[in-house]
Structure formats: structure tokens, C-alpha cells
Amino acid sequence: MGLFDSLKNAAGSALRKEASKAVNSAVTGAVQSVGKGKNASETFTFANLPTTVAELQALPEASLDTAYKTAALVMAVLCHYEQNPAACYEMLNFLKGPEPLNGFQKQFIDERLRGKTYIPRSYFNGATPENNYQPTAPYTIVVSENPYSFDNENWGVMWVKSGGADSARQIKLRKKPSTGQWFLNEIQCLADIRTPVEADPWA
């Protein structure tokens, strides 16, 4: 083999190595990009849970610029249903944005929480059946996403975990592109959970 052939082979080998590195780097980056944010979660802490629209709007999360923030506020607001359903609905209307609660949606919440107002509290840290779902103050809640949460453009499904259920449950949200805000679309996390001790005749 001549000198020219040796140089050509060496150059080809070097190019192949560099190309291989570039491909591997690209693949690694793509995998990391795909995985980034999937199964992620955010934790929110409230010194006090809101009781009026004004208190709700004063919270930093009320910017509603992420699906996480809106989902956390939905659960915080639902906790006030026990004290004042009308005020709870007013706050939910703020979180609903362009489409306030209709009669059917109010009826749905009423039916789910009738005699079970502890359900929203159960999603906050420290709330268990044993302590009748009394969360630990300050009030902390974890909101999560999964690999399918944002499959549909301008729609999101966030997940919250109750201290009285084995699996996380959903809150469906819709984004308003003109403002970048995420608004509540559907509450899917008010199904029955384990009965608190004080209401369990078999406890």
C-alpha cells in the first residue's frame, strides 16, 4: 500500500470516528430531550389555603402560567367547599377562565363531596385516614405529569396523589394560547377514597 493510500485510509478512519461520535451525541441528546420533564413533579406550599377570590389572586401561583400551578390551586380551592360552597365555586370560576362552572359541573362536585368534604384535604401532605385527613401545616401538595400529560396541543393532564388512595388521579387543564395561562377544564380526582377513622364503624 502506498503512502497516499495510507493517508487516505487514516483520514477516512478519523472521519468515521468523528461521525460516530456526532451520531452518538445526537442520539443521547434526543433521548435526554424526550425524557426531560416526563414523570416530573412540582411541590407547592401554602401558608394558608385561600377562602376568597381576592386571596386566591394574591397567591404567586395565580399567574396560572404552568399547568402545575393551576392544578395545585384547584385542590387548594376545593378544600374550602366544606366551609363555603359558594365561595369555592367563585374561586373555581377564576381558575376556569373563559368558561365558568355550569350547573352540571356544580352538581357533580356537590355529589362527590356530599358528606365527604375530606377528599380534597386528602391530597395534601400529612393527610391520612388515621388522622381524619388533616394535612400538616403549612399545606403542601405535589403535582405530577406523566409521559402522556401533554400529548395534545394546549391540553394537559396533571396528577395528584391522595393519602387515601393507591394511585394518583387526574386534573384536566386547557391552555389559552393568547395569554399562556392554563385553566381548569375537568376535575377527575374526587372519587371515593378510604374512609377516615372518625367515619369508619369498623375502625
Provide structural commentary.
This protein is of the alpha+beta class and 203 residues long. It has one domain (41-199). The chain has helices spanning 3-35, 53-57, 67-78, 85-96, 103-113, 118-121, and strands at 41-46, 139-144, 155-160, 169-176, 181-188. The protein has a five-stranded antiparallel β-sheet with strand order 1-2-3-4-5. Strand 3 (155-160) and strand 4 (169-176) form a beta hairpin. Helix 3 (67-78) packs antiparallel against helix 4. It is globular and about 50 Å long. The termini are far apart. 28% of the residues are buried. The model is unreliable at 19-36 (pLDDT under 50).
Identify the notable features of this structure and list them briefly.
203 residues; alpha+beta; globular
- Fraction in helix: 25-40%
Tell me the domain tally.
1
The overall pLDDT, averaged over residues, is 87
List low-confidence stretches: 19-36
* Fraction of residues in β-strands: 15-25%
Q: SSE order, as H and E? A: HEHHHHHEEEE
Q: How large is the count of helical segments?
A: 6
Radius of gyration: 25 Å
The largest pleated sheet is described as:
5 strands, antiparallel
- From the spread of the alpha carbons, the general shape counts as globular
Number of strands: 5
Distance between the amino and carboxyl termini: 88 Å
> How are strands sequenced across the largest beta sheet?
1-2-3-4-5
Question: What is the SS-derived class?
Answer: alpha+beta
